[in-house]
Specification:
140 residues; SH3 type barrels
Length: 140
Amino acid sequence: MARGDTVALGVGERTFTGTLTGVGADLVTMNVAGARVDVHLASLVSIRVVKRARRAGGVRSDPRESTGLRARLLELQLSGQEVEAGIAGAAEPVLGPVALVGSDHIAIGEKARPEWFLPFTALTFVRLRPDAPPRPLGGL
C-alpha cells in the first residue's frame, strides 16, 4: 500500500485489480476503477503486483476508515445500500442490503425478511452495487 503499486487480489472465484487504500486486522480495502472493494483477508488466495508505481510512495490509510470486517459491515448496514457479497466457492455474489450484522455472520436482504445468512468465514468480499441507487434511511 505504501508503494502505490497496482495489485491483483485473488479472492475465491474473483480477481480484483486496483490500488490498496486500507489494511486492517482482517480486511484489505482497494480502489477498483473508482469503486471501493473490501476483501476479507481470510479468503485471500493470491496477491500479484500488476504494475509498479512510477513515483515513489503510495498512500497512507485514512484513520477514519474501517479497521476490520465487522466494522465495515456495520457501516454498510447503517447505509441501507445494496451490496454484492462474495461467498467462498460460489461464482455469483449475493445481492441486497445488509440487514443484520451479528458477531460472526451477516444477513442479506430486507430487514424484516432477510434471504441469506452468511458466516464471516464464508464471506470473501463486499462492495456497494454500482448500479443500485442510494436508499433513504427510514425514519432518520
